[in-house]
Amino acid sequence: MLARVEAVANREPIGDVLFKTIQEKGVDAAIKQYRELKSNQAAYDFDENEFIVLGYGLLHMKKFREAIEIFKLSVEAYPQSYNAYDSLGEAYMDNGDKELAIKNDQKSLELNPGNANGVEKLRELRAQ
C-alpha cells in the first residue's frame, strides 16, 4: 500500500507540464500533448484542480485564449464538474464573450444549483 501512495505522490502535475509547453510551443501543442499523455495515469497527475489552477494562472496573465482552451480540456475530462463549467464561463466572460459565458454558467448551475458564484456571475452577465 505504501508503494502505491508513493507512486501517486510522485506523479508529475499535468498543469506544470502543459504550462511549460504553452510557454515554449503554444496552447495547441499543449492540447496535443495532453491527448498523448492522458493514457499514462501512472506518471501524471490529471486531477481536476490541475486544469483549474493552470487556467486561472493563464487568466491572470491575460492569456484568455489559452485559458479557454485549458478550461475546455477540464470540461472534457470532468464533464460532470460544475467547477469546470464555472471556470470556462469565467474565462469567456473575461474574454468578452457574453453568450458563451452565460451558456457555461447555466451548465454549471444545472450541475450544482447551489453554486453561489455561478448565480452571481449569471446575474451580472444578464444585467449587461
Please describe what this structure looks like.
This protein has 128 residues and is mainly alpha-helical. The protein has one domain (2-127): Serine Threonine Protein Phosphatase 5, Tetratricopeptide repeat. The protein is built from eight helices and two strands, in the order αβααβααααα. The chain has helices at 2-9, 14-25, 27-37, 48-60, 64-77, 82-94, 98-111, 116-127; strands at residues 12-13, 44-45. A two-stranded parallel sheet has the order 1-2. Helix 2 runs antiparallel to helix 3 (27-37) and helix 2 packs parallel to helix 4 (48-60). The chain is globular, with a radius of gyration of 16 Å.
Instruction: Tell me the helix content.
Output: over 70%
Structure annotation, total helices: 8
Tell me the number of strands: 2
Sheet with the most strands: spatial strand order: 1-2
**Gross geometry:** globular
The CATH class designation is Mainly Alpha
Brief rundown of the structure:
By secondary structure, the chain is mainly alpha-helical.
Write the layout of secondary structure elements.
Blueprint: H1 2-9, E1 12-13, H2 14-25, H3 27-37, E2 44-45, H4 48-60, H5 64-77, H6 82-94, H7 98-111, H8 116-127
Parallel strand pairs: 1-2
